[in-house]
Amino acid sequence: MSNTIVAKDLRKRYGDVNAVDGVSLTVEDGEFFGILGPNGAGKTTTLEIIEGLREADGGEISVFGQSPWPRNAALLPRMGVQLQSSAFFERLTAREQLRTFGSLYGATSRKADEMLETVGLADKADTQVEKLSGGQAQRLSIACALVHEPELVFLDEPTAALDPQARRNLWDVLRAINTDGRTIVLTTHYMDEAEVLCDRVAIMDHGRILRSGPPATLVRDLDAAARVSVASGVVSAEDARTLPGADEVTDDEVSLVIATHDAPKVVKALADRGALEGVQIRGATLEDVFLDLTGREYRA
């Protein structure tokens, strides 16, 4: 497959801070690619350089084989961009807003109305944008990025203000867009979102890519312990520690949890004791990979 995006050794510095410190990545045609990282990791700055919104201090970047900087007008109709915060035209309704955005790229009014339906805003079509909730405004922002049917879509934390139902609805929208052949680049703090949607992810911190690859591969390479939990009281913590394959045991009086690298052996031992009440098995996830690479310290 050919590459929609090729970045080599991208660098951007603000004073003493290396916001982007030697980032290299490729995104293939039709790929769903995620960029993950804590606050201040450099995700948004990297995205803005690729989009042509910000000039890099060093390195090379090409999108569809062309440089996005200086602002490349030939690339604009081929890209859709949803930023972390969006400014809308004042006093326009959601329908008028979307039709205005679409008209800049030759999208029809009918397409704009269809997109309102797609993002679940058809019932807010005649509502002024100032009166939309935060989640509704976020969905309108995403609709504006998609209304002209771009080949490449950039989404910067698109579900940050959405409730669980709206998040899942948007996932379905994004899957359909990607299945239709469009390339999507996503930044998100939701590891489950990246694990479900992305073909590959890059985990960033301090301006650098720490690791990249398919989510399942990154999880498998972590070699983290699985956690087998049962209802507290069906087996004592002392007995659980003697089970074959048990590495660590905790009991909070609601659930007894056994950390293990051999979950089948632990489950069989529990079954032999008739102690499978409430049994659950949780393997490692992308969140475990993320925390292993970036640490657990809270960052505001």
Automatic annotation (TrEMBL):
Which CDD domains does the entry mention? ABC_DR_subfamily_A
Recorded hits in Pfam families, A to Z, give: ABC_tran
What does the record say about its membrane topology?
Answer: Peripheral membrane protein
What SUPFAM superfamilies does UniProt report for this protein, alphabetically? P-loop containing nucleoside triphosphate hydrolases
Q: Which family does it belong to?
A: Belongs to the ABC transporter superfamily.
Task: From the Swiss-Prot or TrEMBL record, give the protein name.
Answer: ABC-2 type transport system ATP-binding protein
Organism whose genome encodes this protein = Actinoallomurus bryophytorum
- Identify the domain of life: Bacteria
Biological-process GO terms, alphabetical: response to antibiotic
Q: Name one GO cellular component term.
A: plasma membrane
InterPro entries of this UniProt entry? AAA+_ATPase (IPR003593), ABC_transporter-like_ATP-bd (IPR003439), ABC_transporter-like_CS (IPR017871), ABC_transporter_ATP-binding (IPR050763), P-loop_NTPase (IPR027417)
Q: Can you give the residue ranges of the ABC transporter domain?
A: 5-231
Q: Which GO terms describe its molecular function?
A: ATP binding; ATP hydrolysis activity
Q: Identify the keywords attached in UniProt to this record, alphabetized.
A: Antibiotic resistance, ATP-binding, Cell membrane, Membrane, Nucleotide-binding, Translocase, Transport
Looking up PROSITE patterns in the UniProt record yields: ABC_TRANSPORTER_1 (PS00211), ABC_TRANSPORTER_2 (PS50893)
Subcellular localization, per the record?
Cell membrane
